Amino acid sequence: MPVITSIDDLKAIYRRRAPRMFYDYAESGSYTEQTFRENTTDFHDIRLRQRVAVDMTNRNLATEMVGLPVAMPVGLAPVGMTGMQSADGEIKAARAAEAAGVPFCLSTMSICSIEDLAVHTTKPFMFQLYVMKDQEFLAAIIERAKRANCSALVLTLDLQILGQRHKDLKNGLSAPPKLTIPTMANLATKWRWGSEMLRTRRRFFGNIVGHAKGVTDTANLASWTAEQFDPQLDWGKIAAIRDMWGGKLILKGILDAEDARMAADFGADAIVVSNHGGRQLDGALSSIRMLPQIVAAVGDRVEVHLDSGIRSGQDVLKAVALGAQGTWIGRAWIYGLGALGQRGVTAALDVIRKELDVTMALCGERDIRNVGRHNLLLRRGWEDEYV
Predict the structure, then answer these.
(1) Contacts 24+ apart (CB under 8 A), 241-247
(2) For residue range 184-233, what is the model confidence (pLDDT) as tens digits?
(3) Which residue would you say has higher pLDDT here, 222 or 48?
(4) Over the chain, what is the mean pLDDT?
(5) CA atoms within 13 A on the CB side of 320
(6) Per-residue H/E/C for the chain
């Protein structure tokens, strides 16, 4: 196994090994990709406050996310088509998360089904829900998540309509890939990926094919999916989903203080400050930019998490210092999965854990629960630069 010292090391291997359409699917945003880029670069504007002559022994990264114990305030965010990045990818990632003591969240648009993942894991995982127009399918998939003993429902609010991602259209993104001449030429160079995919039966959207009415194969899956995201999703429908679910509910895709207050009033167990990794509204502010405003708006009425842009343990510490009680990584673990399978996801989590631990110590803290704004140095006016 190569020496991995950063998430960028995994990304470089991933780029060599993954088919182009799936690499581009992960490593892209909508339209000009401004928000996609700034999700990461805005972390660079936040400086850390070094402290010395403090006891750095007996450090603790363990905390809780929505009342669940976690080894560090990091979870594996839901990512669609994970099983196309590496054969049986959702299972590999969930097992790595289990071993690391952090939560894993399965996407509605996963290749592995809810039931399949439940059979191949030993701890409850979370389930991310896209709200579809088909009410029969919606009720059924919520019930399936209940039967699988999912620990929380993560309801995505920022994908009522699909933002345009130029690379996906140009690559003809599909699962499994359509065998066009350019695609076959690219796949011919990805022998490691291809040999693993030939040995698995998991090549379709397992939560949808055979479960949604009329969706029996990839031919009718594409048309069903294109028409199903519900543009009428509002607080009334969210309330109906909450009542159907009956368990812990996390609202993902909050990027505005007013929406955050409404989510707190609604009674969500947590909100995720997120812009869908820069894949929806291009030109929106980065998640880390919006985090302080949202934390100030809701106070302690609802747990606040953050995703979009985290590529290191230092990023995690900065988010926690600005008020996040948990963080979610997406691309960081996908790089690891596409590079080295389950070992790669483990490597990504190890990199983030070690960076978080060392950075916390050098900032003069021994417990992640004591990290706060006092550990940061921000350029004057940074928090209200955009109004």
Answers:
(1) 241/129, 241/131, 241/138, 241/142, 241/153, 241/155, 242/266, 242/267, 244/139, 244/142, 244/143, 245/142, 245/145, 245/146, 245/153, 246/146, 247/146, 247/150, 247/151, 247/152, 247/153
(2) 999 999 999 999 999 999 999 999 988 888 887 766 776 787 788 899 99
(3) 48
(4) 95
(5) 30
(6) CCCCCCHHHHHHHHHHHCCHHHHHHHCCCCCCCHHHHHHHHHHHHEEECCCCCCCCCCCECCEEECCEEECCCEEECCCCCHHHHCCCHHHHHHHHHHHHCCCEEECCCCCCCHHHHHHCCCCCCEEEECCECCHHHHHHHHHHHHHCCCCCEEEECCCCCCCCCHHHHHHCCCCCCCCCHHHHHHHCCCHHHHHHHHCCCCCCCCCCCCCCCCCCCHHHHHHHHHHHECCCCCHHHHHHHHHHHCCCEEEEEECCHHHHHHHHHHCCCEEEECCHHHCCCCCCCCHHHHHHHHHHHHCCCCEEEEECCCCCHHHHHHHHHCCCCEEEECHHHHHHHHHHCHHHHHHHHHHHHHHHHHHHHHCCCCEHHHCCHHHEEECCCHHHCCC
- Please tell me which residue, 215 or 371, carries the higher pLDDT value: 371
Report, as residue numbers or ranges, the catalytic residues.
Answer: 276
Measured over the CA atoms of residue 167, residue 172, residue 174 and residue 176, the dihedral's sign is: negative
Quickly state the pLDDT bin for 370 (edges 50, 70, 90). Answer: very high
Query: According to the model, what pLDDT value does residue 225 have?
Result: 76
> What residues contact residue 315 under an 8 Å CB cut-off, 6+ apart?
43, 288, 309, 327
Confidence of residue 383 (pLDDT cuts 50, 70, 90): confident
Closest to 65 in 3D by CA, of 79, 48, 77: 77
Ordered structural domains, the chain, with CATH: 7-384 (3.20.20.70)
Report the DSSP pairing between strands 376-378 and 46-48: antiparallel
Tens of pLDDT, residues 86-140:
999 999 999 999 999 999 999 999 999 999 999 999 999 999 999 999 999 999 9
Amino acid at 22: F
